[in-house]
Design a protein that fits this description.
By secondary structure, the protein is α/β, with parallel strands linked by helices. The protein folds into 2 domains: about 10-110, 2-Layer Sandwich (Alpha-Beta Plaits), CATH 3.30.70; about 140-275, Rossmann fold (3-Layer(aba) Sandwich). Helices cover about 30% and strands about 20% of the residues. The strands form 3 sheets. It has a 5-stranded mixed β-sheet. Strands 1-4 form a two-stranded antiparallel sheet. Helix 1 (about 15-25) packs antiparallel against helix 3 (about 100-125) and helix 7 packs across helix 8 (about 245-255). The longest helix is centred in the middle third of the chain and has 25 residues, at about 100-125. The chain is elongated.
Length: about 280
């Protein structure tokens, strides 16, 4: 398995140098579970990067690679998100998982991404959606189109993935789309869920279990980067689910766009009503 090499000490900042030292650790190895990436199967879609909460995986040369064993907890949350089966868990000698080092690496990566985004926005001012990644994906052959698969004719779904945290903000199916933003449980409770899905791009989440800030930030970016025709919200009647309406309303407001919004509530008995 190949690893993403960290920069030479002379090329990195003091913050980067600290993270590199933490990743190197004390050199001691322990026998434990660790993620293995088959580069022959990896298509560079990046889904595993989104799923890894420790920031242990990065793309280099179009392939996903583990930055450092010290950043990988070996739990395998990323495995189910890989569309090609390139990720597995193996047991071998590796550096012990260092939670503090993983947090420092994640913080550093976020700072670098923010700086990179600012640079791209300032240097490519002619792009109408400079804050999005569509043009860069098209130029490099990366992005959501790399692993899109046609859905069966019997399915009402017209897009994938549908989890908000996994959705690509510049996916082509968002162009001129009608959105259905639904609570996870509504698909199991509503007897008319197919009617809600039909003709709409679906995004789902749980306003109680999902972290609100990332959910809100992702939705704001989707709305800003695409011409959305309308949004339908379907939430459960339980109190904890009502926050979904607030999140969507806030996202519309912060996107600066005037997007029609309709709200439906799903009862536990399966019936639905317009609010």
């Amino acid at each position: 398995m190949a690893y993403l090499p960290l920069k030479d000490e002379g090329e990195i900042s003091q913050c980067d140098f600290k993270v590199k030292k933490m990743a190197d650790g004390d050199g001691k190895l322990v026998r434990r579970k660790i993620i293995r990436i088959d580069e022959l199967l990896c298509n560079g879609c990046g889904s595993c990067i989104i799923a890894c909460s420790e920031g242990a995986i990065k793309l280099t040369d179009g392939k996903a690679r583990v930055v450092s064993d010290a950043f990988c907890d070996g739990l395998g949350a990323c495995i189910g998100e890989c569309p090609t089966g390139a990720l597995t868990i193996e047991v071998r000698e590796a550096k012990a998982f260092d939670e503090e080092a993983a947090r420092a690496n994640l913080s550093q990566s976020k700072s670098h991404q923010e700086e990179s985004a600012k640079d791209k926005t300032s240097t490519i001012q002619s792009m109408p959606i400079s804050q999005c990644n569509a043009a860069f994906h098209k130029a490099s052959g990366e992005g959501p189109q790399r692993h899109m698969r046609p859905l069966d004719e019997s399915s009402q779904l017209c897009s994938w993935p549908i989890q908000m945290r996994l959705a690509h903000t510049d996916a082509p199916y968002f162009k001129d789309a009608r959105l259905l933003i639904a609570a996870d449980c509504s698909a199991f409770a509503s007897t008319s869920i197919s009617e809600f899905i039909k003709g709409r791009v679906v995004l789902i989440g749980c306003p109680k279990l999902d972290e609100s800030p990332p959910f809100l930030e992702k939705l704001i970016e989707i709305l800003r980067c695409n011409d959305i025709r309308e949004i339908t919200v379907l939430h459960m009647e339980v109190p904890c689910c009502s926050n979904l309406v607030w999140l969507v309303s806030q996202a519309i407001k912060e996107s600066g766009k005037d997007i029609p919004l309709q709200k439906f509530i799903c009862m536990i008995n399966g019936s639905t009503a317009k609010e």
